[in-house]
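Before we proceed, please read the two lines closing this message. Report back on whether the structure tokens fit the sequence:
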Amino acid sequence: MAGEQPISLKTAHQANWTAEDQSLLGATLAATPTQRIAWLEEALRLAYATGALKPKRLITKQEWDAMGSTPQ
């Protein structure tokens, strides 16, 4: 134990991450706030359209159709 260098968080992550994972992390951290909000909005549309997320209020047919859902 004595004389051992502590492993930094960055080194620990790099040791277990593939190049693809590191690239994805870099792209994610480089995204602008506008890009992050756009991604979140798209994820929410998908979640509502698939039924994974239920609206807390009734939405109009127009709003539902705008999310890309097809009527049942």
Summary: Helices lie at 9-16, 19-30, 33-50, 61-66. The mean pLDDT is 79. The two ends are 64 Å apart (CA to CA). Residues 50 and 69 are 8 Å apart (CA to CA).
